[in-house]
């Protein structure tokens, strides 16, 4: 996971450090009934935008999104005249460290890796997510409403259990804890495991087999299909740990009891496994794991050389969270990098989302998506249509993460996560003017916007800016 993990690192500028002094103010507003008209609507399902559209949200859920002529009676909903603005689903950012750090260079505020931990797969980011992180505020203002957040592999090839979070201004950021497990099997995985990909694959297979045997011996139950789902279908039981009669193991080889038990849902196909890999041959090796462990529910992360094995990926039915616009290799596992990577995989029938960890800030996702639209107009290159590009940062990552139909789309019944933009959201100059999460309008102020406003007026008659609050 050379690049994916390398860029799961400090997200923001130095100025964000000052945001640590801000006090969190809970956003206690309830879901609003909102009817937005006079807008261009893009539902995020891959279709092209609809002009003269409308969106209706009731009780925190999308009721309608499409041509204004088809909108049902809005009866009592707050009416908003969009005046030519654009409305899209909220951006779903995968993969990120949002909520896990404030200042990357200050260890006390950075929970994005655990290089000295005795645990690996058992690591669970959910308790560490900070909804008051300035990174969350900044990215919410950029139209990101949901994100998959995780630590970076450091002491082990396993990063641990990532969470899906919402970026709402309230104290309950974690939407789904332990939503996925992450493992590095490329250059970085080989380096961590002992200096070779050979060691990484042996360690990985050993871990899965330990988990498989442990789950059987300890009688760890699988997820019950009868368990009632939460609002977002989060069929996530209490973290499976051993207790009572089966609490002890005869002996650990490479995994602690907690790490092995954390991998039980993975080996059973009950928890998504994200595999960070770049090189074409490494991708083939990962796909081959499906024969040995057929129940694995996998997705690839990175996949800079995915276009070389696109047919194999498509046949395997494994989705990809791919780096957006790599055109030059950063290391030996990316020698075949090309900006056409995503376009060629999509043409081959692969389900592809754009990888947020491959850019400095996840808030640039819409810019990368727009660049892929432009790339499609370059002779000989492979890009995406406008609808495909928007879907690659909304409904497709939601589908890969298991929240499809609930986030990343303006489909009927989906969460009322929507963004009102002042122009085409895939154009670099467009910005959000309103953001709703679960039907609640969100504040867009953050440390960066306050700095902008503070220094916008440079009248020399003003007091020194240190006193201008």
UniProtKB/TrEMBL annotation:
Pfam families linked to this entry: Amidohydro_3
Membrane-spanning intervals of the chain: none
Gene3D superfamilies referenced in this protein's UniProt entry, alphabetically: Metal-dependent hydrolases (3.20.20.140), Urease, subunit C, domain 1 (2.30.40.10)
Protein's UniProt keywords contain Transcription: no
Signal peptide from the UniProt entry: 1-31
SUPFAM superfamilies reported in the protein's UniProt record: Composite domain of metallo-dependent hydrolases, Metallo-dependent hydrolases
Biased composition (Basic and acidic residues): 220-230
Domain Amidohydrolase span(s) in chain numbering: 381-439
Protein name, entry field: Amidohydrolase family protein
InterPro entries xref list: Amidohydro_3 (IPR013108), Metal-dep_hydrolase_composite (IPR011059), Metal_Hydrolase (IPR032466), Metallo-dep_Hydrolase (IPR051781)
Alphabetically ordered keywords of this record: Signal
Domain of life of the organism encoding this protein: Bacteria
Region (Disordered): 220-239
